[in-house]
Design a protein that fits this description.
335 residues; mainly beta; Jelly Rolls; Trefoil (Acidic Fibroblast Growth Factor, subunit A); 3-stranded antiparallel beta sheet
Length: 335
């Protein structure tokens, strides 16, 4: 069995299928083709932006986030969300080719805009603008970059002031007033790139409802992870879903009312513990988002260091569950 998607083809215009053999002969007696259904129900993309519109290139939501591909050109996907002064950030992973980027203050046609990119092909972090299609480079910072590596890029604007950070390091700091507001979006240049954890003005506070127990939310109580209805205090059930402490392709659940503490598994149980800085803690507190094991419209969370084991509730308590006997116990609805 072979599957093809629009992101698999080397050329978006490719329409044909060719069969060949090497060192022998093969007779094809039958071939059946079926349209694939959408793999993801709830999108795996973590973002505060809404209503994406693909201007150019091939775009899809994948396990790496919002992934775009285009050859020898710029591909754009714009959100309906607009802004003037903001903090805009995302985790960029270049999978092949040249660059992946954050787009900001763009018009609806992606003709006038700003782009801050991670350019692995040319080994640097670039900031540039376009005004009606005319490109002007505003800043270039050479540095060693790698494919299939996650880089956290952040843009902070205040009127004409534009600052670009890689992680916590300031890369570009300049003044430019060519365009002072517009759409947020993503860009890929001459290759394939994905962007995850795409947030404007900070990481949103979220709650996680058990998929099969209405109105019962993931919370901590005396440090133990559990699900309960009518949580008091309410903040015990609020979490910041941040890039994974052990792997930024995953996520970690940071407590809102206990800063510096995270949901982690310990001896198979889920606890809210302070980050002790060890590699073991970072791995225990990192989870990978997966489509719901029984309902793809929900979300399941797979342990980073125990592959195949998922966060689950048994009664009211949370565990790292090595079985999928009751898939619904391992599914959550994001609020």
């Amino acid at each position: 069995m072979v599957s093809f998607t629009e992101l698999s083809y080397p050329d978006p215009a490719s329409k044909g299928l060719e069969l060949y053999t090497v060192g022998g002969a093969v007779t094809v007696t039958a071939a059946r083709f079926a349209r694939m259904r959408r793999t993801w129900g709830a999108s795996p993309l973590a973002t505060t932006l809404t209503q994406w519109s693909d201007v150019s290139g091939a775009w899809a939501d994948t396990a790496y986030g919002r992934e775009g591909r285009i050859g020898a050109a710029d591909g754009f996907s714009l959100a309906a969300t607009t802004g003037a002064d903001f903090t805009y950030e995302g985790d960029i992973r270049v999978l092949g080719g040249y660059a992946g980027a954050l787009v900001f203050r763009s018009d609806a046609a992606a003709s006038t805009f700003y782009v801050a990119n991670v350019d692995v092909g040319n080994q640097g972090i670039k900031l540039f603008r376009s005004v009606n299609g005319t490109i002007t480079d505003l800043g270039w910072h050479p540095m060693a970059l790698s494919y299939h590596t996650t880089y956290h890029l952040k843009v902070v604007t205040a009127r004409s002031s534009i600052r670009v950070y890689l992680g916590d390091t300031l890369i570009h700091d300049l003044q430019d007033a060519s365009r002072l507001d517009g759409h947020f979006g993503l860009n890929v240049f001459n290759g394939t790139a994905a962007v995850q954890n795409v947030f404007v003005n900070g990481t949103p506070i979220t709650r996680y409802e058990a998929g099969n127990v209405a109105n019962s939310f993931v919370r901590h109580a005396n440090g133990r992870g559990r699900i309960d209805p009518d949580v008091v205090p309410y903040a015990d059930s609020q979490w910041l879903l941040v890039p994974g402490l052990a792997d930024p392709a995953g996520v970690s659940f940071a407590s809102v009312n206990f800063p510096g503490e995270y949901l982690r598994h310990r001896n198979g149980e889920i606890w809210k513990d302070p980050n002790d800085g060890t590699a073991l803690f970072r791995a225990d507190a990192t989870w990978y988002r997966r489509p719901g094991l029984g309902d793809v419209n929900l979300m399941s969370f797979e342990s980073c260091n125990y592959p195949g084991e998922f966060m689950a509730h048994n009664g009211s308590l949370l565990y790292r569950d090595p079985t999928v006997a009751v898939a619904a116990d391992q599914e959550f609805r994001i609020h």
